[in-house]
Structure formats: C-alpha cells, structure tokens
## 1
Amino acid sequence: MRTLGVLFLGLTFFSFPLSSARADELSVAQLKAEILRLAKSYEGKGDPDQSLQKTLDVLVAKLVAKAPMPPVNERISLVAGVWKQVWGPYDYRDDKGGIDPTLGFREIYQVVFADGYYYNVAPYFPGGDPTKEKIGYLRGEFELDPLNKNGLRVRFTRYPGVDTRPSKLNLWELPALSEAGKVENEITLVPTPVVVATFKGGTLDEVYTDEQLRLVYGTSFKPNARRSLYVMRRIE
C-alpha cells in the first residue's frame, strides 16, 4: 500500500475553488491535492445541476494538460487495483445527480482486475434503514472502446452480496473471493438474468491514472445520459 502523502501536499493553501487562471499556476502535485480537497468537501452531496462537478472539471482539465496520459490499453495494469470513491454519483437508479438513501456512500469501492472485469462494492441499506445493512458487489466486464483511446465499454453481469458485513475482511476483498466461489453465505441481490437484461452498461473515460489517484468520467448507455466525474484514491 503506497503512501498518499504527496496527494495532500498544500491542502491548507486553498480554501475555495480556484479560478482557471489561478489553476494554471499550480504544479501537478498541487492540482491533485486541490482535486482531492474539493472532492472530499463534496462527499455525500448530490449534484443535480452538476455545479460541483464543474469546479472539478476545470482542475481535471489542467491536470490532464500538464500530465497527459497514454492510451488506457497501455495502463490497464495501473488502473487495476482497489479504489475508494472520494466523490461521484450517489444514485445509480436514475441519472439526476441525487442521493440514494439505500447506498452507504462513505464506503464505495471499485475493484478492478486487469483481465477485463471489475466490481463496485458498497453497503446497501434496504428501505434506507442502516440497521438492515447488506453488502453488495456488482460485477461488470469491460473492453476497450474503439472510439476513445481512454475509453472502456462496460456491461454488468451479476449482483451478489452478503447479508452480514464480514468481521475479518475488508469489503474490497469480497470480489476476489466471490470469483473463486469462496464467500461464505453469499446471496443474490438481483438475479443474474435481470442484471444482464436490465442494468444499463456504459463507458468509462479514464482521463487520469497514477499510483494514487484515478479520475474517470462515466456515462451510461441511457439516452441523453450525463457525463459524471468519479474521483478515486487507491487503497491498495
């Protein structure tokens, strides 16, 4: 597990969103720190009009300009790993930028495997009741998007989970165990045929990845879908 210290360099220097001109003056390390600071300040907040995202978009564009990325097919091994969502969409049932009360937003992880699949892992509260917590891990498969050098096309394949939070495991360890058929008392949150037939896939535009920070724009295949930013930090 690598230190995250460099990402927080200079966090105390900024107390409000930066103008585009001011952002031009920042180093790559400072831009990353400011992106994380802002994203953390937005944690748990919806973004119906995408006004929060727009403040981050400016910084993301500056970062990508100063530290351009090779095509995603050349950095799949870097994308692979465990990522914690610092900020991003909190309701996947629609595309309105609201908050799903059944989602444990403080523990949203994405576990990416280099051989073409990943899991979104998070607590799930049936009826919005935290005392009824389950853990869900939605499996998706990805392939390169021929229309975008940074793009991955995603389709979802199954949605298992567990009724009780494991006492001796981190949540992000469940996907690998599930792939091996070794999760005790695993349940099906949504039947696989329903997932395959009705869960809309989409694209992931992997605009920035390094050993600690990942910035991704996700767009579903729904008509007129919005382009939503995910800010993630590496766990391991």
## 2
Amino acid sequence: MPGRTPREAVDAFLDPLKDTVSCVARAKITLSRDGRGMTGKIHGLSLNKDNPVTLKCHSSLLLRVNMLYEIVRTDDPERGPWRISTRGYAYELQTSNRQLVWSYHWHPTSAVTTPHAHLGRTQLAEHAVLSEKAHHPTGRVSLESVIRTCIADYGVEPLRDDWAETLAVREGDFELYRSWS
C-alpha cells in the first residue's frame, strides 16, 4: 500500500488488515518496535501479541496471524514514494486445545522459500500418516482468503453483516498492490 511518508504507508497497509480481521474477531494488531516508520528493516506484526484469537463457531477454533513487512521506497509518483512490501507470513488455524488444523506459511529466508501449507497431523491408515511437517506448495495466500475459508468452510460466524463485501474489497486491494502472485 502506498503513502507519502513511511508512517502513511504503514497505516495504509494496516487499515485493510484491521477490516479483514474484524470480520471474525475483535483483536488488536501489534507491531514490532519501530514498525511504523523505520525504513531499511524487516518489521513484524501479530494479532493479539501472537496469542491465538478465539473464533465464534461450534467447534471453538483459534486463529494466529503473523506477518513480516518492510517499508520501501517506490518510484511511483501517483501512489506515493513509500509502500509496504510483505516479507513473510504465517496464518494458522488451531483447535481449542491448540492442535494444528492447517497453516499457511511464507518465510523466504528459511530452507523452504516458497509459500506452502501445513496440514494437521492425522493417521489416515495403518501406515499412512499426514505429517504436519510436510510442506504442501501453494501460491501466495492473502489474509482475506484465510478469513473467507474460516467462514465458508469451518463454520466461523462472521461478526460483520458486510463480511463478504469487506473481504472482496480488501482482497482487491491486496491484488492491486502486491508485487508477485
């Protein structure tokens, strides 16, 4: 998201995330120290200081959200000289006893540099196990698509009547400003 100053760019990045999260949770986005204005550094953000958020549904699911971002200078005079570039993410759905259901990760500085998913550990048959350590390849995953999946596929009750429109608008922002698919 663009801005005239680094701080404006961060605010333009956070506003859509706040709208997205508000579709399913009352939670605060916490930034790492100096996360609103220091350039040339990777910053982190988390939901509720990295404590899972309880989602309203019949099965008591928990959501964790973490992202890494950098404030970067851009050459686009129409959008502003500053923008935010996502440098990694981890979105995780857990059961009420903190067992992994699934998680989407992108941490390009680790051994697995591409976006991927982890699925909860399950015994499928006598000798077939679905390992939560396996990296299932994905494309880039937006927080909006994660929230939509929670609502549509896991029975999470939206907290906003306009959740579908909000997610559609905010995912449009994501697609407009992302620099790779």
## 3
Amino acid sequence: MRLLRSSPSATLAAGLLSLANACHADAPAPDREALPELGLMGTIPIYWGEAGGFGEVLAGGESAHWARARLEADYRLSPLDTLDEASLAGIDLLMLAQPRALSPSENVALDAWVRGGGKLLLFADPMLTGESRFAIGDRRRPQDVILLSPILDHWGLALAFDEDRPAGAALVRAAGAAIPVNLPGSIDVREAGADCAILIPEVLAECRIGRGSALVLADAALLDLHEPHPGAAAALDWLAARAFAFGGDRAGQGLSGRASVQ
C-alpha cells in the first residue's frame, strides 16, 4: 500500500474546511443552486475585489467588495469576461457595472440576449468618482469614462456628461427609493419610438426591448468600494429588484411624476 503525503497547503485547506463545517454544523446550509443565476461583468471589482494579483484574491480582506455579499444573498453570481452567445446561454439576469467598451460582436450578442427575454441592470457612469488604489492608466482601475454609445443609441437612449452639474454626493429618489449619486450623467430617450421611461429625470431609465428589459443608471457612485454611501446597499437592493422583476405592464409608464432630487 502506497501512502500519500499531504502538502502543507492541502493540510491547511483541510483544516479550514473542517473548522468551517464545525462552525456551521447546526446551521441549515443555504441552497445556492436554488437561487437565480446573475451574470456579472464590469470594471468595478465586485466579484474579485480590488486585488493586485491572485494572491490578494485568495487573501480577501480589504480587497473584498461589499456589494458581492449583498448580491449573493439573493443571487448565484457568475462572473463573465466577455459577452457572447455561449457566455450568456442559460443566464436570464445580467448586471454590468461600469463595463469596458464592448466590441461590435459583444454589442450584437447583448442586444440579442435582451431581446430574447434577458433582464439587464446597467451602471453607466460617464465620469466615475469612486476612489481606486490603482493609478490612472492601470488596467486594474475601474474605467473612469463609460463607452457604450453604440448599444444605448440602438436602444433609443442618449447618455452624456453634464459639465455644469455641481460636484458632490446627492440622493435621487423614485418610488420611495433613495439612490446615492455623485456627478451623474444625463440620460434621455432620444427616439420617440423607443419603449422607454425616465424614472428619475436625467439619471435612471427603464426600457422594454423585445421580450426583455434594461434598467440603466447614469452613475455608479453607489458601488464605491472604499467609501460607500450609507444608503448604497439599500439602493442596490432596490435597483436589482426593479431590474429583475420588470414586466411589460410597466413599460412606458415611468415614475417621473414621483421622482425628486435632494
């Protein structure tokens, strides 16, 4: 009989697993597979955290993003590197958090996915204000300027940056939700035929696109990692619930009459 010697890393992993099992022995294990799957992509490091390398990812700690745990309470997250038919297959819900510029083929795939029934929550900030440990030009830094004009134009939306908007954190409200923003962009319906509603003037748009839908926020300040607004978690909960439960009966109705900025 040949004896197998455990490596130090394997022994440590086994010990941690045993400790975790002991700590949770009396607690019911959550059925992760029963949760709806949520595709996640973007330059804001929600899934992996703001890590300088793989070692920091394993270590966790300060690099972890608060929004991951918040989302994982209700969804089974699937991080995506690219958008194509294969990566989107089987996914009904998608969150794009300040994504990089999409290639032409990715724009086509995303449009087809939404029109086929997909539900999208998009954070598109034309002038990101959140802090990062990485310097400007570092590929690990969240993208400061969003470059999504092709797909937004295709859906009948126009996104711009208002240079006259005063700097500083603010709250915008719709349907009882308070959403923290900081130098948000200006989003509007550019085509009369687009089945879109402005829920918060210049900030939040909701569109019916084919059999699917998109909720587009022209800001991403609530996803700030280092200094999150006290209301950020509740705002993320509301946006996700709104985006992923959007139905055809609400298309084109909007809530702009009840929206305000303070």
## 4
Amino acid sequence: MSIREHLAAWVAAVVFFVIGAVWYGQFQTAWLAGIGKTLEGLTAEQGSSPLPYAIGFGAILVMCYSLSWLFGRMGVRGIGSGMLAGASIALGFLAAMLALNYGFESRGLGLWLINTGYALVGLTLAGGIIGGWKRAPA
C-alpha cells in the first residue's frame, strides 16, 4: 500500500469513528434500552476506561484497511463507486451477520436498526473517502 492509501484508510477511520459518537449520542436512549442497560450501569461497568474506544477505533481501522485492500483488488475508483461498494458490504455482510446474531440472541429490531444504520452510514462514507482518494498508479 502506498502512503496515500494508508492516509485514506486513517482519514476514513477517523470519520467513521466520529460518526459513531454522533450516531450513538443521538440514539443513546434507544440503544441503551436495546442492550438492556442504563447509562449509570454501563458507566459503573466500564468506569473511565478508554478500552472500549480503543477497541472500537481498532475495529474501524481494520474495516477501513480491508475496504482499501478490496477496492485495490476490485478496481473500485471514485467516490460514488466507493460509496456503493461500502454500502453493499455493510448491508450484504454486516447487516446480515447482525440479523443472524440478533435472531439467536433475541435482540430487538430497534437495536438492529441502530447498529446496522451506523455500519451502513459509516462504511458508505468510508468507502467514498477511500474510493475517491487518489491512488498511486498501478
């Protein structure tokens, strides 16, 4: 991978992560109800540990590097193509996997919509950033 591709993956990951802060801030009450916790209970469990945020950002970074690698192999170029590929991956893999898990875990549709919506928005925008970033000549 070129420096440009690394930079694109990191920028996409930061954007994806920031979207998560806004997304889950917006849907906090419904999300907490969906996971069966209160803000106080969650805070008591995690304290002020940065670990959930570090794990979350690491997972997003892996997704963005995976998108970059896939886009390079598939010849995805351009913002629109990147957004379409990111959305397709979010719906075709992540949304389906969450539905599979949530069905067996007896989790509600509302939680699935919140988590899937975040994956869809995040991967669509990350795909647009990575796809639209100028790649080094092949």
